[in-house]
Amino acid sequence: MADIVAYGVTTDERPLLERALGHAHELRCLDLVLDPDTALTAAGRAIVCSSVNDILDERVLRTLADGGTELITQRATGYNNIDLAAARKLGLAVSRVSSYSPCSVAEFAWALALAVNRRIPRAVSRTRDFDFRLDGLMGRDFHGRTAGVLGTGRIGTAFARIAAGFGMRLLGHDVEPNPQCVALGMEYVDRERLFTEADLLSLHAPLLPETHHIVDAGALALMKDDAIVVNTSRGGLLDAHALVETLRAGKLDGVGLDVYEEEAGVFFFDRSLEVMTDDTLARLMTFRNVLISSHQAYFTQDAVGQIVRATAENIADHLAGRTGENTLVARRC
């Protein structure tokens, strides 16, 4: 049995964690973000189960190590919020969930694309007021148009399969072609051509130094005036300030964002009674053709169930002294 504290736990996620871990371990679920102000709440807990919005820099990791933590297991695929070098230096083991249902994110990306294309949020808002006019609600068929997929891993491939089902022409960009996407008829092109020709651009790349702001002012300038941009991957892929300026100029038919580069401390929380101090996010919210959700693309029973099961396996591996595909920093012997 191990003492475990899980951070950033949602109401829907808690029973899944309790069923997977509560019977064999001492588990405490918190809705807090793990950061320098809350790190002391992990004192005495051997295992910290983190979320993607937690701050696990060297300062926090040192507090965790001093408090007796041995393992940090992140309930996410991304881990750019964890200082792995500091964890290694401090003797902390680190694991993540290397994969879960790619369909959860791909389907949500399509939900955003369809919603902004067919003006669904505006239509719903109108009909709630019994305004049933069609003025300003005209969208376009995706059939026959071009889908640009930036990043063709498991999620990008799932997105491309759906695009192929719509009868779209497929363009892709990645470090190397994915045979599954090639089999769908995808043509791999350079970034400039991807941005220039895409009617719908969907981002599915990891956030790395070389992909930070990969969609910047220059990329947005290359895009068609009536293109749609969807980001369900990482906020830092898209330069939000450049996006605001592009929208102010009347360019882009629609934007769907499930992630935002400054989302930490905002997404997953109720900020409805507070003043929004992020001017860029506040400005994005004013555009009628922009739809923003709160990093929920992964949030299905299937995907979260897989994440919880993988997390339980990571903990079991750690306690047994094993490493696996989810290991980022091995336990120090």
Automatic annotation (TrEMBL):
Its EC number is 1.1.1.28. SUPFAM superfamilies: Formate/glycerate dehydrogenase catalytic domain-like, NAD(P)-binding Rossmann-fold domains. The keyword Lipoprotein does not apply. One of its GO terms (molecular function) is D-lactate dehydrogenase (NAD+) activity. The keyword Heme does not apply. Keywords: NAD, Oxidoreductase. CDD domains: LDH_like_2. Belongs to the D-isomer specific 2-hydroxyacid dehydrogenase family. This is 2-hydroxyacid dehydrogenase. It comes from Streptomyces gamaensis.
